[in-house]
Automatic annotation (TrEMBL):
Pfam families: Inositol_P. One of its GO terms (biological process) is 3'-phosphoadenosine 5'-phosphosulfate metabolic process. GO terms for molecular function: 3'(2'),5'-bisphosphate nucleotidase activity; metal ion binding. This is 3'(2'),5'-bisphosphate nucleotidase. It comes from Novosphingobium kunmingense. Its cofactor is Mg(2+).
Length: 247
């Protein structure tokens, strides 16, 4: 299959999403067990497919033991088979499938599937990002809203929009459902590699909350914080975050 990296990411995210819907719709598993089964099923498909289609590349998945030999690879596929396992297990729509590719530490290509919406957003086919409304909207975790995001909302007179998975929140900015995604409670590389690749391809600002660059394929996969927003809002948001951090 002679697909580009972005085409492969989109194809795999789409198929994994369909597999996950099939597992959920089987009706024989529910709750936490559904999340475990979905994660395992999607992970097996994604990792086997990537290793067959891109045998020279490394793979980092949330659902597999980390093979640190990836650190010597310049190309690393970073996947989250089910981003928002709780939401998936509860049959909520705000979960996603992430298939991202980091090249030399940068999120270079990827796709994020939102299976319940029948949508796959991808780095090689950007769509128009709708203009922001007068009152900005900050998308936050529905279970663990970041303190900085709440403070930022007050500073910008913005509305808070609770939502599930990191991928769903990042894609909400592209889809015009939100304007700023600020997370400071800690994530891992698989939580945001694919979303960042897709968001950058759509012309959005992506960085750490101090404005520094995001780096992937690190020995420690923990990523403390993340900011995704429209470029016209980035400077003001970063200034306000710095002020809140000092406060």
């Amino acid at each position: 299959m002679g697909m580009t990296d972005a085409e492969l990411a989109a194809h795999l995210a789409t198929v994994a999403g369909k597999l996950l819907l099939t597992v959920r719709e089987s009706g024989v598993i529910s709750g936490k067990a559904l999340g475990i089964a979905g994660d395992a099923t999607a992970n097996q498909f994604l990792c086997h497919a990537l290793r067959q289609q891109r045998p020279e590349d490394a793979v980092l998945s949330e659902e597999e033991n980390d093979d640190l030999s990836r650190l010597s690879a310049s190309r690393v596929w970073i996947v989250d088979p089910v981003d928002g396992t709780r939401e998936y297990g509860e049959a909520r729509p705000d979960w996603a499938v992430h298939v991202g590719l980091a090249i030399n530490g940068e999120a270079a290509a990827g796709a994020v599937a939102l299976p319940d919406a029948g949508v796959v957003l991808r780095s090689d086919r950007p769509v128009d990002v709708p203009p922001a409304p007068r009152q900005l909207r900050i998308v936050i975790s529905r279970t663990r809203p970041a303190e900085q995001a709440v403070g930022l909302a007050e500073a910008l007179c913005a509305e808070l929009v609770p939502m599930g998975s990191a991928g769903a929140k990042a894609m909400a900015v592209i889809r015009g459902e939100a304007d700023i995604y600020l997370h400071s409670g800690g994530q891992y590389e698989w939580d945001n590699c694919a979303p960042v690749a897709v968001a950058r391809a759509h012309g959005l600002h992506c960085s750490r909350i101090d404005g520094s660059a995001l780096a992937y394929n690190q020995a420690d996969t923990f990523m403390p914080d993340l900011l995704i927003c429209r470029k016209e809002h980035a400077d003001r948001v970063l200034v306000e975050i710095a002020r809140l951090s000092r406060g």
